[in-house]
Specification:
CATH class of the largest domain: Alpha Beta
Organism: Algimonas porphyrae
Protein name: AsnC family transcriptional regulator
CATH architecture of the largest domain: 2-Layer Sandwich
Largest sheet: 4 strands, antiparallel
Strand order of the largest sheet: 2-3-1-4
Pfam families: AsnC_trans_reg (PF01037), HTH_24 (PF13412)
InterPro entries: ArsR-like_HTH, AsnC-type_HTH_dom, Dimeric_a/b-barrel, Tscrpt_reg_AsnC-like, Tscrpt_reg_AsnC/Lrp_C, Tscrpt_reg_HTH_AsnC-type_CS, WH-like_DNA-bd_sf, WH_DNA-bd_sf
CATH superfamily of the largest domain: Lrp/AsnC effector binding domain/regulation of amino acid metabolism (RAM) domain
Order of helices and strands: HHHEHEEHE
Helix content: 25-40%
Radius of gyration: 20 Å
Keywords: DNA-binding, Transcription, Transcription regulation
Length: 157
């Protein structure tokens, strides 16, 4: 694990808030000049701490007004089934997150949809692509209270 100092953590917070900022702007906010700031960012990228820089798109602005959380249960936990399931997840772009879980749920998915009709199309595609599902249960978010795109970096390990 890479040891992060306070300046590294400040840089990470600035990049998470707005990765389009110039090196000069980030450097000024963390108390460095441009070259040392740029070197630190490169080191964080090389260490795999920064895994990429992307533009965040607002789902609501794109008309994706429904956030659905879907739990899946299956009796088949074979490697072949898992490979097929992973392949199916890549074919459904509306599935923005998918997690293999512990406990009484096998998989948890986060799906973005335009409306209930669109969700039903995604659901039908899911059950067509993934044989052997015992239960597919959905819950719809009524309100997003927090968007967790910023990873906490102010704690020591």
């Amino acid at each position: 694990m890479h040891k992060l100092d306070l300046i590294d953590r400040k840089i990470l917070m600035q990049l998470q808030r707005d990765a389009s900022q110039s090196i000069q702007a980030i450097a000024a906010q963390v108390g460095l000049t441009s070259n040392p700031c740029w070197r630190r960012i490169k080191r964080l990228e090389e260490a795999g701490i920064i895994s990429g820089r992307v533009a965040r798109v607002d789902p609501m602005a794109m008309g994706l007004k429904m956030t659905c959380f879907v739990t899946l249960h299956t009796e088949d936990h074979s490697e072949d089934w898992l490979r097929a399931f992973n392949a199916a997840m890549q074919k459904i772009p509306e599935v923005v997150e998918c997690h293999r879980m512990t406990g009484d749920v096998d998989y948890l998915m986060k799906i973005l949809a335009y409306d209930l009709e669109h969700y039903d199309e995604i659901y039908r595609k899911l059950i067509r692509l993934v044989p052997g599902l015992n239960d597919v249960s959905s819950a719809f978010s009524m309100e997003r209270l927090k968007d967790g795109h910023i990873i906490p970096v102010d704690t020591e390990f």
